[in-house]
Amino acid sequence: MALHALIDVSRESEVPLTVQIQWRIRKEIGAGVLHPGTRLPSSRRLAEDLGVSRSVVVEAYGQLIAEGYLEAVQGSGTRVVPHAARGTTSATLADDGHIPAVRWDLRPSAAGTANFPHREWLSSYQSALRTAGRRGLDYPPLSGVAELRLELARYLGRVHGVWTTPDQVMVVSGFAQALGLLCAVLPRLGIDRLGVESPCHHRQRTFVREAGLMPCAVPVDEHGIDVAALARTGVRAVLVTPSHQFPTGVTLGPERRAALVRWAEDVDGWVIEDDYDGDLWLAHGPRPGALQHLAPERVVYAGTASKSLAPGLRLGWLAVPAPLVAPLERARAQRDLGSDTLTQLTFADLLRTGLFDRHLRRERSRLRGRRDTLEQAVRRHLPEARIAGSPGGLHVWLRLPRHVDEGALVAAALRRSVLVRGGRRYNDPSWPTGPALAVGYTAPPRSGIAEAMRELGDAYAEVRNAWPVPAGAV
After folding, report:
1. Are 403 and 155 in contact (CB under 8 A)?
2. What number is the average pLDDT over the span 40-51?
3. Dmax over Cα atoms in the chain, in whole Å?
């Protein structure tokens, strides 16, 4: 049961030993090297093999159990979960690993679809059926039906300040397909590496790598992506979430935005702007405009209906600089024959009639109420934590005091039937950040948010009491 041959830990690295062990085991499970059901060595044995403290391995195992990669079987030790999926079988941004059955699901990716506008969608779908005709039921144009591209160009300009034309709008099956297409086109432009934020979506780096590019991590601070660090990587393309960075929630400020545009111009490069939750800005003031507005010839703007309507629609869009339109269409032709026409026509009707705007007003009001409930619960049950970033979207980034054992907290929460994701999940190992939690607030009923946070507060108290707090550590 020797495992140390797969794990290379370095005491010279700034990355904690526990995180190094977690990352290696997670990687080998995803690659299929550690098969489902594989029994791992005891924490004592692995600690001896690696020459580390047993508590380091115990914490690593605990975090991986909480994330659903491993399971502790009484009398049989620790094993890879029997249904663990190999990450190399397909590249998907939706893969969240094994999801244990819990009472409170606080994952930021948990879809809140209870308020989907069924009546409005049905009305627009019926309208689309009546007006589609024979052309509407034939194979769609690769970049999308003309009606939706027109409405999207109008909507994106009016709401987000995107400079585009219907001819430069491409309708896609969600952001995952959009990113896959861009990863296929960039090598043809002499680009084989893509800058990605750290922290970022936990599957993003793997997705980019499996799509054929080398991801290069670029740190994010309280002002957004570090453009100076980006320049030092030597890449010529970068993927960013400037309006509401995922997962930290910070908004890229005016100086950083201007610097990012200058960088793209200086290196003859491209910026992919993922405005993943742009319709759900919750602050009582104007939301930041699209970065694309500053440099429409350098920025590819990407949006999606996954957060505003439902991820099951698989509906997204790109506003594309003119030189990339034809290459993207050629790449699309090699993969599919376009997106569902009736869904496109339905969404076009929602945009044209104002029903989508009305739905968003209701949804933002609902989410503000949920976020307020969460903020009150954090102040009551986790007073040492701090909510970071701008108010928007479906989750908050909860910064914890730097002495907190994040992995132990996630595991303790799971024992109380609360599923929450730790911040390390989203970090590149080369850019570690302090302990944090990414807390979603759309899956539980609003009345359950406070109870879930009370359980999380009890887990925090348990973990905090188990370790001495260094002077000045909070």
Report:
1. no
2. 89
3. 73
**pLDDT average, residue stretch 19-48:** 86
* pLDDT tier for residue 274 given thresholds of 50, 70 and 90: very high
Count of CB atoms within 10 A of residue 469's CB? 12
Q: What is the pTM of this model?
A: 0.81
Beta-carbon contacts of 305 under 8 Å, excluding residues fewer than 6 positions away, are: 313, 315, 316, 347
What domains lie within the chain, and their CATH numbers? 4-80 (1.10.10.10), 104-115+358-466 (3.90.1150.10), 118-354 (3.40.640.10)
Sign of CA dihedral 396, 303, 112, 416: negative
Residues 390-421 pLDDT 10s = 999 999 999 999 888 898 999 999 999 999 99
